[in-house]
Amino acid sequence: MNPSAALLFYGDDFTGATDALGTAARAGLRTLLFLGTPDAKRLDSAGALDCIGIAGAARSMTPKAMRDELAPVAALARALKPRVLHYKTCSTFDSAPQVGSIGEAVRTLAPALGAPRLSIVGGQPNLGRYCLFGNLFATAGAQGEVFRIDRHPTMSQHPVTPINEADLRLHLSRQGLKDIVLIPWTAYAEGDEALSLRAAKHSSPLLWDVAEPSHLALLGRQLWTLAQQEPLLAVGPSSVVEAVARAIHREPAPRPRAIAAAEGPVLVLAGSLSPVTAAQVAAASSTFEVMRLSAERLASRDVDYLASAVLDAASQLASGRNVLACTVGIDGSRAAVPSGALARAGGQLLKEVLRKTPAVRRVGIAGGDTSSLAVRALDAWALSYRGLLAPGVPLCRLHSDEALLDGVELMLKGGQMGGPDVFERLIAGNQPGRDSTPCTLMP
């Protein structure tokens, strides 16, 4: 059962999980992202892996649902005994006591490792996320203005988990993670030995600042040293994987390679309410046929409406046009509908359209919750990494026992990720020299 895997991570939504997948693959780790907790037979068929990922949807779940979701992950950790078990959160730490509780995740996963040390990593510089003196900051959109997270124009007004506290120690204490000890970025100048001594003084959870990219190499050495002493439970964004992978894999990372242009028409499902995604949809109107779908009718399981939408999209794609199916109105709003039901309906739409148009081999999904639940509606079991379209926006390969779906290239994009041209990049691929690394596992 892949006893060589040093790192096991669970992504609390699919877009974040694919970012962690890409981060590990670009660092040279043999990595596969499973779309559910794999059994022993599936793991054995995957071959030797340095890093095993599981894509989940805990970020949108109640504590009871989270316990049910994470119990198989905990069982797998007991069996595999990884040195590092990473609960991969959104880089903005989207969570609340009643929805996507990071504290609940820790309480469920920690017993699988015995009595592990808990390290929390704040910040992911490549996505414009920074943690200074325990306070989280984030850019608004690609290369936008940096805001303290409780004043961020989107995250402070998130429809499910609005963030009103920037200090991660206080934010997480509300979820039951008490007595968190901060290791501030100003201490990093002390060097590895002094930092190790500082960390060893505390049995409480540690929160590590990340103020700039150079901090990740040092942080990786610290986390890996802790993991050699006893199993480590790490919480935070993909910067955890980036830091630890540097310590695990000391050889040069694989050379980046461009992503080729799509060979056929491209299908995108946009379910995000983010203004960033709205701008991307607007920018794509000249290269895509934009279909404005009724979120209310989709979520209500209107079978006739779904069938009509499938036929419309399939017809456009069969004629060679790219299609962008959007559940958000032109003004960026939509009817108040259950997000889970809408996302599952979107997944059903994708599945039916792909079955009717086998020429479509590249698909994009925009929206964290939309991605998580829509992909689960597809008959697939894993993703491997193809390359990077933009920071935080990887292109992956779908692995399925269904021939029609196997090999489909899939972009999963969170609402805040990507520049205005991200959907055009999905069509055209990346130019040489951009950050894009092919997957060497199970091509």
Question: Gist?
Answer:
With about 450 residues, this protein is an alpha/beta fold. It contains 14 helices and 18 strands.
Would you write up a description of this structure?
The protein has 443 residues and is of the alpha/beta class. The protein has two domains: 7-248, Putative sugar-binding, N-terminal domain (Rossmann fold), CATH 3.40.50.10840; 266-428, Molybdenum Cofactor Biosythetic Enzyme, Chain A, CATH 3.40.980.20. Helices cover 34% and strands 19% of the residues. It contains 14 helices and 18 strands. The strands form two sheets. Strands 9-10-5-11-4-1-3-2-16-17-18-15-12-14-13 form a 15-stranded mixed beta sheet, with helices on both faces. A hairpin with a 6-residue loop joins strand 7 (135-139) and strand 8. Helix 7 crosses helix 8 and helix 12 (339-356) packs across helix 13 (368-376). The longest helix has 18 residues, at 63-80. The model is unreliable at 432-443 (pLDDT under 50). Residues 7-243 form the Four-carbon acid sugar kinase N-terminal domain. Belongs to the four-carbon acid sugar kinase family.
